[in-house]
Design brief:
- This protein has 5 domains: 3-140, Response regulator (Rossmann fold, 3-Layer(aba) Sandwich), CATH 3.40.50; 164-268, PAS domain (Beta-Lactamase, 2-Layer Sandwich), CATH 3.30.450.20; 284-356, Signal transduction histidine kinase, dimerisation/phosphotransfer (DHp) domain (Helix Hairpins, Orthogonal Bundle), CATH 1.10.287.130; 365-517, Heat Shock Protein 90 (2-Layer Sandwich); 537-655, Response regulator (Rossmann fold, 3-Layer(aba) Sandwich).
- By secondary structure, the protein is α/β, with parallel strands linked by helices.
- The chain is built from 19 helices and 24 strands.
- The strands form 5 sheets. A 6-stranded antiparallel beta sheet has the order 8-7-6-11-10-9, sandwiched between helices.
- Helix 13 (406-422) runs antiparallel to helix 14 (480-490).
Length: 664
Amino acid sequence: MKAEHVERVLIVAPLGRDAVAIAAVLQGAGYAAKACEGPEDACVQLAAGAGALLLTEESLDRHVPQLLSQLRAQPAWSELPVIILTSGGEARFSQLLDLTAAAAGSVTVLERPLGAATLLRSIEVALRSRRRQYHVRDLLDAQRDREAALAASEERWRLALEGADLGSWDVDLLSGTAVWNRRHAELLGYPADSRHTTMERWRERVDPEDVEAVEVAMDQARREHSAFAVEHQLHRADTGELRWLALYGRFQYDAAGTAVRFSGVSRDVTEHKRLEIEREGYLAALQEADRRKDTFLATLSHELRNPLAPIRNAAEVLTSAKITPMQLRWAQSVIRRQVTHMAWLLDDLLDLARITQGKLRLRRQPCTLRNVVESALETSRPFLDRKDHELTIRLPEKNLTLNADPLRLAQVLSNLLTNSAKYTDAGGKIELAARVDDELIISVKDNGIGIPPEQLHRLFMMFSQVAPYSARAEGGLGIGLALVKGLMDLHGGSVEARSGGPGKGSEFIVRLPLIETVSETDSKPAELPSAMPEKLRVLIADDNQDAAESLAMLLALEGCEVRTAYDGEAAVSVAQLFRPQVALLDMMMPKLDGCATARALRQQRGGDELCLIALTGRGQEQDKRQTDAAGFAAHLTKPVDPSRLRRLLAQARTNGMPEGKLLG
């Protein structure tokens, strides 16, 4: 605002020449005076600035709304002095004061006629008051500028803290009072507006286990004039939740070197700590998995080599010209037993791989508990008899029907029985008991060597064997219990292990849903022929010549007429003259694979009556679907079980099922 306007007196006198006369008096005394031409002009001049406003009572009578509105719009620091000239006496004085009081805080009423000296003194007093107002305005403007600059700085600091998700604090060490920002209050669990507080409210949130470490770090930073950096746990004031907080700050010192202030920033590092703990857990798990993998590979190598030694020895015995009938039977028994053992190891591995990859599919059907238990006992009986264990079976009086895969459920029970047999000393006691309590509960309990409590959680891990008893595994790979858990999960059931500790035996509990209870006796499957009809024409195609010829010899001894081929094209050529009734085809032959060979055989004369059986080392579900789609009646995984092959060939001859699925 211009300086002359600060000292200017505006005059509003609508009658006669009053305004001009008053302006002349004021100008003659050295004051800047402006006679306004009317109310509109007065409002314009007021907006431009004025030191005082001189009115005659007539102006108020005529122009009250415009003038009072302008006065009400003054800023807070402004209280424009208003001088009113009147000749109406005391009553008029009161009326004029009431009229202007709401719009102007500083109002002086002078009675006319009045001398020039009185007028000039009133003008001087009014202008002096106005100068003080402008001085206050200047001080306020300067203060506002400083505050704006500080606010801008604080806003930049606040944005920086918020962008980094940081809290901040400032502690007056002499008074113990503290100021922290909204984020720091939130981190501690205090209301966001509790910014003015004490150092003690911070300390009381620190987890008791970390108090000493925080105090030591603070003392060290104070003594060494170094940065303070620490991570500690805290309990939030609102929820009690345990969180991790990272602090970084510095002390400020007076001239004597005494710490007087302590300020810094804070950050929630709970998620970082969680990830760090998870990473350490993952690393430990990877190291453990790597260790178990190495142990498994070493065990697998050992266990696959073990059967090869007696097989090789038995094979050498068979080549001797001096072999006796007893030695012949012994050699046959050794080879059969060791091959079965190797097949068992490989089957367990494949089953576990399918479960892990989500590729194993259960073949659920109504099946009775007794049949499942009998099947499990048939598999595990050699392990039980070898150590002369006493086995007790306790089943419900009524037979139970389950909605389960009978083969896989029998596998679960046989694995548990075999496990107990291995880890129970000779002559021990093993009990298989079942009861119904809204679900089927099967328990396999023994009085064996027991399980250390710290090992229980590892039992169902892949390749896991209980230390220090791995030597008792008797050829296991540490996958039997993992397979049990996987199969029970697929059934919607569960398995758990219990033990009182070393020397106190073990108990494995299986839980499975029931569908119904029946009292009928078990239905037994129809007996299948155990011996193959003579002179069944069989074509064997396998690029492994030893495998093809040994299987051909076996079938020839059983009375079949056999031809062999060592690739797909040769098989098609042999079949044209031989016209086999059954073709055993390896799926991975050169020139033509098993499926292509099957299609070619079907196109030959009489091919629609040919029974196809797949021979393969692959036994996953997608492999079986592939051979099924290619028209194979059965899918056999190597090494082939001779007894199953006998049943399949007997079915093929008896039932005449060229493309139907064989049951064997």
